[in-house]
Design goal:
Strand 13, helix 15 and strand 14 form a beta-alpha-beta unit. 34% of the residues lie in helices and 21% in strands. Helix 3 packs parallel to helix 4, helix 9 packs parallel to helix 19 and helix 13 crosses helix 14. The strands form seven sheets. A seven-stranded mixed β-sheet has the order 1-11-16-15-12-14-13, with helices on both faces. A seven-stranded parallel β-sheet has the order 6-7-5-8-9-4-10, with helices on both faces. Strands 25, 26, 27, 28, 30, 31 and 32 form a seven-stranded antiparallel β-sheet that branches. By secondary structure, the protein is α/β, with parallel strands linked by helices. The longest helix is centred in the first third of the chain and has 20 residues. It is built from 29 helices and 32 strands. The chain starts with 19 loop residues before the first helix and ends with a strand.
């Protein structure tokens, strides 16, 4: 929280040990010139405001520096009783805004002879402890006796917790804790009655399912605070996102003022976009020798075949080597990795890189003080690593995104990113950890061989665009809402005062009626609805799943406790996909085999035992959609393409799995049954219908394309539509692949289905999906699902349309499909550009353009050229169509094909 508004205290030390050009020139291996892009990002000085223009003399006097302009703007808005979201860069002093507001409230209350408290929520325990020290130090510097304490799962029970509830002025916690503590709100009566400020730090992290839960926990907290007579202001701090106002308002259900004009100083930065070289035989063997999930997924994406082009070295190998090189040259460096396992492995790989090139790295001990950092370490070890990093005792740290957030680790020289982190806001957050103030910094993005990464390194201008991804919070998910209604009724009886404040009348009545029939609530809104179910319904809420049911991971009977994987509970969807009986999973460096899954126990569980086998398992997943209903629709660019948004039933079949060799990625055993029933989701989706004339033209254009094994499997003989449907399939993959370029999401939150008969997946008068043979709404197998769709298609009186669906991969939806519907043209333009520009030279593409490791049909069929043609027609950029081209294909009944 220390802030300097003059030129950096070490004003002449603006150089860094290694510049971007020097990195490229000194790195000990040849690389193609096109594999590296250097971007020079200029800095700018601070914009400051004297503290006394905003603060009372009691605070302005002890404060030994001016305020940045955005800090002053936020404090002025708070003085006007507004809620504030501060959305500025990493290390821009956002914490100081709410710290000074806490101090203002404290002094004002003291003058009235009253108390003032503040509730501060951080996303991680590590960040909570770091900020506790920072806030206490600041209040000491200001001469204020403000008691700041952390209250979370690590806080010692008994008297220490009681003291915090009864004496602390500022309580730091997280939303998992708030969800739990609301049950015992009477213990917090003193604190809640004096609460003037609620702080949500790093608010951009609350998106998707997690964001939905946090939004409802905030609403429940506001109910309880109102019961004790409090109406606090909100301060939210956020990374730069595209919609900070809308996102913040959705979280807190109140108007908010956004402050996003950053007045903090920025030093110049050398940004290096680094595409790893093509893999040599020696490097391939090195990769196979060290197994990790990311490498395995990269090796298996799209399947392996002898005619595939050589792949690039994975970022999981190359990034630790760049990290090692920078620390050797005295640049204190943070390496960001996507998992705990890779943080650990990266330290090993950094050392191995130097040992293999000892002719270059001739001083073996130089820059070798390297440590991993992640949430799996003890608190003592994490704090020790933070302290050593801050005080220059470590040359480098390989971390998960735990260090992306605002933990104070001092001014680093450089950052290295193992793959593009998924969103521009995370990208800027991470690289912002180097070069504080006006110091120059170096940042290196080492790309993976996948859609997002290859797009970014091929289009450096994308990172520099001012439009940043939107964060999505959708409070319309009824499954999540119902869980929090039950908790709210447990905390305080729900009555007519909650209508409009907590939820609209019809929605609230519907949820209460469901719980009333389940015997878990009683009463009416007119007189009050109380909870009567099992104790503490708050404990059933998982902040990362829409359904309350989670599976405990335990050791199989007779296995030594020292092998306990200590895994977090698993959502049902993940159990079906990755933890079926027979699955082999890698966790914290140890292989585990799933030997039992009990779905029906009061506490469902997965039993595992340690194993050591030369394979991992990969589940095959296939999808279909039934009964989709359109709620909104529009035509795209007057091109005849119709876009729809609505809801439907998604059936996901994790029916079989393969055993895949760790070394080389070749299948050892295939299509082993899982005996899992389908997962059925009622969710949100959007879909595109292609005009008949465009379809007929492109069927004819790509008639000669053939996939013999697929056509043989379908039992249909040669299929003239296979090139066209390969284009639909590739376009669907590309749209999902680039969605994170516009929205704050993980593409694993989405699913897709391309189909030649889109109408047979829609709700229709007769026959409905419920009237299929046997009357089974959810066909037991994917083969039965295909038969259902085929029957519906044959019953149509018109020629069905073709196109593709994109759906939210969670029960009830996440709001992402609506965001895609809203931003469809921008996403389509990105997708078209990326597919067309890929230099793989393959008709069926590669993992960097249209192949996807999540594809339920093993990335077959895919056709890049047909996908580009579809996008061109959609965007109004294709050539005019000639009716004569379509005469033959117009008479052909299209087969019932769909690919997920």
């Amino acid at each position: 929280m220390n802030q300097h508004t003059d030129t950096d205290a070490n004003a002449n030390a603006t150089d860094i040990p290694v510049t971007g050009e020097e990195l490229v020139d000194t790195y000990p291996s040849y690389r193609e010139e096109a594999d590296v892009s250097l971007v020079d990002l200029p800095g700018h000085p601070a914009e400051t405001v004297p503290g006394e223009t905003v603060l009372h003399p009691d605070l302005a006097g002890p404060l030994d520096h001016d305020l940045y302009s955005h800090q002053a703007m936020a404090l002025e808005a708070l003085a006007d009783d507004e809620n504030v979201c501060v959305a500025t860069s990493t290390a821009s002093g956002k914490t100081l805004v709410y710290a000074l507001q806490i101090a203002r409230n404290y002094l004002a209350a003291r003058r009235r002879g009253e108390e003032s408290t503040a509730y501060v929520c951080y996303p991680t325990k590590a960040l909570s402890r770091d900020q506790e020290r920072e806030l206490n130090d600041l209040f000491d510097d200001l001469g204020l006796e403000i008691d700041v304490a952390v209250y979370d799962g690590d806080t010692e029970r008994g008297e220490p917790r009681k003291r915090i509830r009864e004496e602390a002025d500022v309580v730091i916690s997280n939303f998992a804790g708030v969800n739990t503590y609301l049950h015992d709100h009477d213990r917090w009566a003193r604190f809640f009655a004096a609460c003037d400020l609620l702080v949500i730090d790093e608010s951009h992290t609350y998106t998707g399912v997690h964001g939905m839960h946090v939004a409802w926990i905030v609403r429940r907290l506001k109910r309880v605070l109102a019961y004790y007579g409090s109406d606090p202001q909100f301060v939210l701090t956020s990374a730069t996102i595209g919609n900070p106002g809308a996102h913040s308002s959705a979280l807190i259900d109140e108007p908010i003022t956004v402050v996003d004009e950053d007045g903090s100083p920025q030093g110049p930065r050398d940004l290096v976009l680094w595409n790893p070289p093509m893999r040599t035989g020696e490097e391939a063997n090195g990769v196979d020798a060290i197994s990790d999930d990311a490498t395995a997924a990269s090796a298996s994406a799209g399947g392996a075949s002898d005619d595939e082009p050589p792949e690039r070295l994975p970022a999981t190998i190359e990034a630790p080597q760049v990290f090692s090189h920078l620390t050797y040259h005295d640049a204190q460096t943070l390496l960001f990795t996507p998992s705990r396992k890779l943080a650990e492995l990266s330290i090993e790989r950094a050392g191995e890189h130097r040992r293999r090139r000892d002719r270059y790295y001739v001083t073996p001990d130089r820059g070798t003080a390297l440590e991993p950092y992640h949430a799996g370490h003890s608190r003592k070890k994490r704090h020790g690593t933070e302290h050593q990093l801050k005080n220059g005792l470590l040359d480098g740290v390989a971390s998960t995104n735990a260090l992306e957030l605002g933990i104070n680790v001092g001014a680093m020289d450089a950052t290295v990113q193992m793959g593009y982190p998924g969103q521009r806001q995370s990208f800027w957050q991470q690289i912002g950890r180097a070069g504080r103030g006006e110091r120059r910094a170096l940042s290196v993005l080492v790309a993976e061989h996948r859609t997002l990464d290859q797009y970014v390194v091929s289009h450096p201008e994308f990172l520099l665009e001012t439009d940043v991804e939107d964060a999505v919070v959708d409070v319309d998910n009824d499954a999540v809402f119902a869980q929090h209604v039950r908790c709210a009724a447990d905390e305080l009886a729900l009555d007519e005062r909650d209508v409009g404040e907590f939820a609209e009348c019809e929605r609230l009545e519907g949820a209460l009626e469901m719980w009333r029939r389940a015997g878990q609530v009683r009463g009416r809104l007119e007189t009050g609805v109380s909870y009567t179910g099992p104790p503490r319904p708050q404990s059933s809420i998982s902040l990362y799943a829409t359904a309350g049911q989670e599976y405990e991971v335990r050791l199989a009977e007779g296995v030594d406790d020292r092998y306990d994987p200590e895994m977090e509970p698993l959502a049902r969807e993940r159990v079906f996909r990755d933890f079926h009986e027979g699955a082999v999973r890698l966790h914290a460096g140890q292989q585990y085999e799933v030997c039992e899954v009990d779905h029906d126990a009061p506490q469902p569980y997965v039993a595992v035992r340690p194993t050591n086998v030369d394979y991992y398992t990969q589940t095959r997943s296939e999808v279909t959609i039934l009964d989709a209903e359109s709620e909104e629709s529009r035509e795209i660019n007057d091109t005849g393409f119709d876009l729809h948004y609505g809801t439907g039933t998604v059936l996901v079949y994790h029916g079989t799995y393969d055993k895949v060799a760790v070394h080389g990625g070749k299948p050892k055993d295939q299509a082993i049954p899982t005996d899992n029933p389908p997962l059925q989701m009622e969710t949100q989706l959007c879909w595109l219908e292609v005009p008949q004339d465009v379809e007929r033209h492109l069927v004819e254009e790509y008639r000669e394309y053939s996939v013999p094994e697929l056509e043989s499997e379908a039992g249909l003989g040669p299929i003239p539509h296979i090139g066209y449907v390969g284009g639909l399939h590739a376009a669907e993959h590309a749209m999902i692949g680039v969605a994170p370029l516009e929205l704050t999401l993980d593409k694993r939150d989405l699913g897709g289905l391309s189909t030649l008969t889109i109408d047979s997946h829609l709700a229709m008068d007769a026959p409905s999906a419920a009237e299929t043979p046997g009357g089974d709404r959810a066909p037991r197998s994917i083969e039965a699902a295909r038969a259902t769709v085929r029957q519906l298609s044959n019953a149509l009186e018109r020629e069905p349309a073709s196109g593709w669906f994109v759906y939210d991969g969670i029960e009830g939806g996440l709001g992402f499909s609506w965001a895609i519907y809203d931003e469809f043209e921008a996403l389509a333009r990105r997708a078209r550009e990326h597919v067309a520009d890929c230099d793989c030279g393959r008709i069926d593409g590669c993992p960097a353009c249209v192949m996807d490791e999540q594809c339920g049909n093993d990335n077959v069929p895919l056709h890049r050229g047909a996908a580009v043609d579809i996008f061109d027609r959609l965007l109004g950029e294709g050539n005019s169509l000639e009716a004569a081209d379509t005469a033959d294909s117009e008479r052909e009944r299209r087969p019932t094909l769909f690919y997920s």
